[in-house]
Amino acid sequence: MEENNKLAIAENTENATATEAASPVPHPIKKLPLTHSLPAKAAVFILTIITAAVACASLLFAMMLLSSNQRFYTVPKDELKRELYETEARDNARNVVSVLTDFNVDNGSDSAYAFAEIRNIASMNVEFSDDLSSKNWSYKSENMQPGDMKYTFMFYDFGEGFIERTSSVVLGAKSSAKVTVVLAKSFTASDRYSMNSMMLDFLYSMRYMIFVIAVVTVIMAIAGFIFLMAASGRHKTSDKPEASFGTKIPFDLLVFGTALLFGCFLLVFRQISHRDYVMLVLAIFYTVALMAAGLGLCMSLATRIKLGGWWKNTVIFIVLRGIWKGIKGLFKLFFKIPLVWRTSIIAAFIFLLDLLFVGFADEAEKVIYIFIRSVILFPAIIYGALMLRKLLNGSKALADGDLEKKVSTKGMFWDFRRAADNLNSINNGMSLAVEERTKSDRMKTELITNVSHDLKTPLTSIINYSDLIMKEPKDSEKIAEYAEVLHRQSEKLKRLIDDLVETSKATTGNLEVVLAPCCVNEMLSQAEGEYEQKMEAAGLTLVSNVPEKTVTIMADGRRLWRVFDNLMGNACKYALTGTRVYISLEEQGNEAVITFKNTSRDALNISAEELIERFVRGDKSRNSTTEGNGLGLAIAKSMTELQNGKLELFIDGDLFKAELRFPLI
Known about the structure:
Shape: elongated
Order of helices and strands: HHHHHEEEEEHHHHHHHHHEHEEHEEHHEE
Oligomer: single chain
Radius of gyration: 54 Å
Low-confidence stretches: 1-10, 13-29, 617-626
């Protein structure tokens, strides 16, 4: 029982181990930085706006504190409040005097009472001069206790309403009014006195801390700005910056929209009074919105810079590019006109300008016109003369047979450039023609030499052995041996002549070709069977890679077999003993590709173009122990082309590769 339990535990352990081994190990998920996280960017964006707004407000308050001649640091708070309340009390006194002396108001006393009742004014007394003593007025609050803040103001009427004067002697005044204002001990009403009091209390309590707040918020705003610039254009799906909807809008339109928004805000700010707190709150909201728009504009610019070519997505660039294309199009159209007509148009234009300035311009304008015309025409004429000299020197060198001389096109434009290019093209064409002529003469010489050698070898054997037969007695046993040699050399000579005739016909297109559907698989299988023993005899291993799928092309079976026969025969003759010969067939697009590859026995110190020429062999010594006359590849190439195919040779060191391509059907 205990042994069974041990076996069960062991099996469970093995199963668990196998399950762990079989289960794939999860790849660690690549953690992207915060710059790729949309929530992080949104949070930093909002935080940057808030810190920037706080920084601006802190700097503004700091400037206010510093611009007050350090009174916040040297004057007691109550004295500052007294000075601050005095401005508001003066405005209140002026308004009450205006209401009491306004003849259009039926009951000025009641209006003045209502005005004072809603403010933190404990009492107010107005005493006019004798002519207006009937309008004297006094007010005392029932709910507010008088405080220490008491102000007295003198107003005088010079015929256009009451205005304040601080001088004790005032001349020319029709009437006067003395106003005494006593503020409440504690502010219970919500008016400007209470709001000024709260603002001053805040500023006074923050007169030192405000600088720390300003520095910290400025640093935080700068850090947030740098983060957003680095994060702009980054997405969680890719490490590379990507365009978004905002980057598709022309950038200068965004700049114009932001500038327009800023201009509207300036107009609003000009209408705001520092004592209108509702408008101040609205101004703060507008400022935050403008900051958000500006920060978004900076992020859009950063993304465009990362993507590259940010200036291309601007209305200015698009318009300028359109204008430039239009100018280029006009220039192209103009330069398509023949040279004579072009010159005539320019001359006619200059002539019309001459008539216009001679007939309608004054002397000063004529002098300026002549000067400008000379400044333009003189360099143009000198430039044309220099370019013509270049062209003349180039044509003279060409006429003298200096084919290496090239006309420098540096600094040339328009027809001068085309003329220089034409001269250089003639030069290149003549150089190629001379090179081809030299190559043709060399090949003709080699062709005659090779043909003479290949014809002379069997012909010499036939002559020599014929002479030996003639000298031998009729019953000599050597006659049969000599006759066998004669027959073999005659067959070799016949094959050479047949190859020459066939090459001539194939090259000139006089070889009869009957195209019909042809199965390449079967023909390659036949070639493998035909050359299997020959390959073994040559010490070669044939490796075939022919698919089972039928590959059909349009070809002449006899001519295609001749192509395969020549390529396989070359492999048997010239491949290195003990190596492999590869044959493959595959479909590439709409073509059937047949490849023959082998390793050459002799070094292939020759190009593929030269190897495929007639009477050219891999062994340039034309070793007589190796059969062949150098016509096999030339015949294969010509026959392939007659069947609408293509034969290409590739040589890489000692590796020889022949590639046949035929259209599929």
